[in-house]
TrEMBL record:
InterPro entries: DUF3822. Pfam families: DUF3822. This is Uncharacterized protein DUF3822.
């Protein structure tokens, strides 16, 4: 690394896998991008073991980073309007739609673009290890990044757009209409039938038209795989999310599948 190279590291934590991304600010280039999927959903303790093994064995992480961000991706989060938020009731907001334990640490992200507070449970063991390894760092919930990035970058359209960020066993669903977030939710699925049920349920509840409403896909999905095929069977307009980033992508990185890394690429 050149003496004056400024580098930033983002780490995405999920019980189904890990992702890593390094942005060289000096060259304005993403120079490292890697995903490590797990065979099955695991525990925060096991995730930490995987994280330790990767950080200690890969020379890409031995450099000095000017900024480190940890993205916690789980279902333990809920949005609260800014004007209704009371810090003393953090646990109350979460317990209505998440299974939380008495001793869970609860924190929040401010999403200024739509004046909401995202209340969530981070993986404390991961945070402790990252602090011991890198020193000062920032952490956010994945939904905060998804909501902010889609609202920041959306073109002004009257018609609603459904954004799906697909993971191994969950799907994050955002519906945006006239530049306003109409819905955000996370659904756990175990089959393509589960998956399409939840998506069509969202369409029904918000009275969206499967013939005219567009779905934009990111995450763990490819054209003509099972999830894409079942979506396209019921919804006419299904596209992969496209975005012009303010940085370039190294030639060593396969640009055909950047939609799979949408979350971590939008963390910078």
């Amino acid at each position: 690394m050149k003496i004056n190279d400024i580098k930033e590291l983002s780490i995405q934590i999920n019980l189904n896998g890990l992702s890593f991304c390094i942005l060289n600010r000096t060259l304005n280039t993403i120079e490292f991008l890697k995903t490590i999927p797990f065979e099955q959903k695991t525990t925060p303790v096991e995730v930490l073991n995987h994280l330790k093994a990767e950080l200690s064995s890969n020379t890409a992480f031995s450099e000095d980073f000017n900024a480190v961000l940890v993205i916690h991706q789980n279902e333990l989060a809920t949005l609260v309007p800014e004007e209704l938020y009371n810090v003393e009731h953090k646990a109350d907001y979460l317990k209505f739609n998440s299974k939380i334990l008495r001793n869970d640490f609860i924190t929040e992200d401010d999403i200024s673009i739509n004046k909401t507070v995202n209340v969530y449970v981070p993986y404390v063991n991961i945070n402790n290890y990252i602090f011991d390894t890198f020193g000062e760092f920032v952490y956010k919930h994945s939904s905060s990044i998804l909501i902010d990035s889609h609202l920041q970058n959306i073109e002004t359209k009257d018609e609603p757009i459904v954004y799906l960020n697909i993971n191994k066993s969950t799907v994050e669903v955002l519906v945006i209409e006239k530049n306003k977030l109409q819905l955000f939710n996370v659904f756990e699925y175990h089959s393509k039938e589960d998956f399409i049920y939840y998506i069509l349920f969202v369409f029904e509840q918000l009275k969206l038209d499967v013939e005219t409403t567009t779905i934009e896909l990111s995450g763990k999905v490819e054209k003509n795989d099972d999830l894409y095929t079942v979506l396209f069977t019921y919804v006419r307009h299904v596209n992969f999310v496209e975005k012009k980033y303010k940085f370039s992508i190294s030639n060593d990185i396969d640009r055909r599948y950047l939609h799979k890394h949408f979350l971590i690429l939008n963390s910078f």
